[in-house]
Task: inverse folding
């Protein structure tokens, strides 16, 4: 009996018993071919490699590669790979070759690259095009995306942001007064504690506040009448599965496509109604988009405006809601910081009896505790853990980042994907003291790593990629909003939204965490806390 037969005989015996009609040869093939494929894959990795290629992360299964380890805990995976291979290495992700570049120099290498060499659209389009729709964002050449980003940036003037502060505050107070999760609060009982689901509550507050402000009154008014369902169907198409596998014959894909078509029509209908009613001067982004022109003088077509609005809805939803959720969880878990935050509200807004003067846009810049709390939360929990680009032509790695030897360089071949992870550089013990500790006070130290990282992001060379001057900032270890030409344009709005939501809640509620601090859930597109509850009580002088 051959070694192979000895090895497989017991298994084929069992299977033959279970499936008596399957011929033995088929069984033999079913068991041995996968083993052979795994063996060949291992041998291939042990063969001498082209020394200009970055080291390849060892994996057992071809095609699948390191997908399970990366998908379960990307930061842990990068940390382990870094120990073994250094700051630059390649791993296999469902058939794709992904070269990771870590640390501030890795951020600079990827986020500061030329778009003719590093294309975001080639990576993100399969996920986002079916959701956003045609002719926007990654469905257009990069220079058109830059113009579209400028349109949105122009729409987010200080004057608009100023008006949004009151709207967000009002939405949050209304939520507290009406949502079933805050029944205890509504009962006016100052002794009783209630609990709310973190993810659900902040998802709802975020979409309500974004629709009341950026999205406009028609969207806000329809939130309870069907728009929320369309959003849900669209959102269920925003998953790693839909990114990796296009157009599978599954219900979620069909619902996604139907929701996109209906939502697009919904926005275009609003546009037509506004034109017919002559009401084109609202406080929202749509109104501003209706008045803008591309460089060649052309106005935006209705479907482009509709699809930019959908893109903004999606770009701002999970990012802001997970940021608010993590922020509140940390505050609930840190009574001292909770007290300091509340004290700051009392001192700044002049109340000892539960009556606060209304918040203004300018106030938000004068609340150092709130500012530090949000910054520190974004340091530890940036919603986006991997920023990717497709390599269009062979790309040498700067030797200061990583090199095979003193006189040679690594080259990332065309066709590879490259990946930067500011999420890792933001918790890198090489940069941050007590990196894994949530400590807002680190942001008060003007000479500390946090302040230095922020300066690197905010100051230095200014560049205009087509959507206004921004600091290049790509070499900072702290980049929750990305950097370079794909840098976030929602940063100020997000700070304002999260800041007002947190302030309003802190003014009205005492918070507590009655469970272990939740772990991050990496199975979603944006990192959010695993299912968790925050315990609350109405502040006693309300
Ligand atoms: C881009 C983070 C909120 C709109 C980005 C990027 C990051 C990011 C890291 C860069 C992606 C890349 O380089 O591939 C965040 C965080 C947010 C937030 C942490 C909240 C806490 C928002 C909001 C909006 C928005 C509220 C809309 C109003 C965009 C847009 C881009 C972008 C349009 C540009 C995409 C590109 O140029 O490819 N954001 N974002 N974001 N974000 Fe945000």
Result:
């Amino acid at each position: 009996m051959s070694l192979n037969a000895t090895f497989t005989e017991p298994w084929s015996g069992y299977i033959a018993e279970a499936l008596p009609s399957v011929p033995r040869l088929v069984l033999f093939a079913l068991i041995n071919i996968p083993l052979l494929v795994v063996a060949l894959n291992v041998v291939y990795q042990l063969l001498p490699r082209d020394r200009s290629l970055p080291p390849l992360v060892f994996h057992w299964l071809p095609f699948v590669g390191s997908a399970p380890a990366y998908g379960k805990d990307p930061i842990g995976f990068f940390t382990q790979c870094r120990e073994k291979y250094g700051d630059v290495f390649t791993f296999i992700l469902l058939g794709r070759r992904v070269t990771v570049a870590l640390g501030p120099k890795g951020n600079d290498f990827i986020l500061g690259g030329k778009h003719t060499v590093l294309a975001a659209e080639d990576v993100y389009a399969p996920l986002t095009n079916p959701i956003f729709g045609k002719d926007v964002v990654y469905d257009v050449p990069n220079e058109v995306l830059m113009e579209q980003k400028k349109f949105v940036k122009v729409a987010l003037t200080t004057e608009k942001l100023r008006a949004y502060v009151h709207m967000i505050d009002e939405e949050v107070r209304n939520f507290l007064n009406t949502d079933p999760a805050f029944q205890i609060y509504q009962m006016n009982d100052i002794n009783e504690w209630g609990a709310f689901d973190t993810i659900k509550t902040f998802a709802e507050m975020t979409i309500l506040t974004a629709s009341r402000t950026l999205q406009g009154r028609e969207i806000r008014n329809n939130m309870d009448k069907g728009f929320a369902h369309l959003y849900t169907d669209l959102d269920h198409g925003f998953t790693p599965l839909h990114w990796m596998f296009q157009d599978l014959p599954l219900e979620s894909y069909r619902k996604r496509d139907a929701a996109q078509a209906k939502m697009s029509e919904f926005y275009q209908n609003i546009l037509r109604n506004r034109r017919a009613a002559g009401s084109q001067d609202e406080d929202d982004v749509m109104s501003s988009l209706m008045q803008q022109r591309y460089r060649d003088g052309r106005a935006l077509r209705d479907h482009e405006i509709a699809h930019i609005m959908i893109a903004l809805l999606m770009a701002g939803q999970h990012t802001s809601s997970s940021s608010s959720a993590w922020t509140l969880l940390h505050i609930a878990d840190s009574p001292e910081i909770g007290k300091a935050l509340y004290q700051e509200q009392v001192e700044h807004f002049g109340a000892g009896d539960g009556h606060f003067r209304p918040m203004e846009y300018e106030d938000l810049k004068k609340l150092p505790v709130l500012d530090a709390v949000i910054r520190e939360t974004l340091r530890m929990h940036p919603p986006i853990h991997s920023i990717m680009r497709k390599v269009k032509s062979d790309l040498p790695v700067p030797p200061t980042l990583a090199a095979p030897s003193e006189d040679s360089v690594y080259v990332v071949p065309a066709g590879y994907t490259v990946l930067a992870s500011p999420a890792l550089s933001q918790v890198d013990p090489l940069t941050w003291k007590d990196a894994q500790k949530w400590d807002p006070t680190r942001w008060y130290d003007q000479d500390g790593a946090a302040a230095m990282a922020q300066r690197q992001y905010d100051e230095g060379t200014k560049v205009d990629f087509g959507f206004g001057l921004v600091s290049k900032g790509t070499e900072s270890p702290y980049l929750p909003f990305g950097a370079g030409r794909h840098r976030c344009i929602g940063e100020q709005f997000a700070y304002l939204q999260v800041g007002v939501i947190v302030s309003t809640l802190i003014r009205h509620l005492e918070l507590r965490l009655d469970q272990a601090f939740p772990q991050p859930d990496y199975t979603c597109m944006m990192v959010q806390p695993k299912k968790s509850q925050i315990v609350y009580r109405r502040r006693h002088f309300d």
Q: What stands out?
A: The chain has two domains: 3-122, 133-386+430-538.
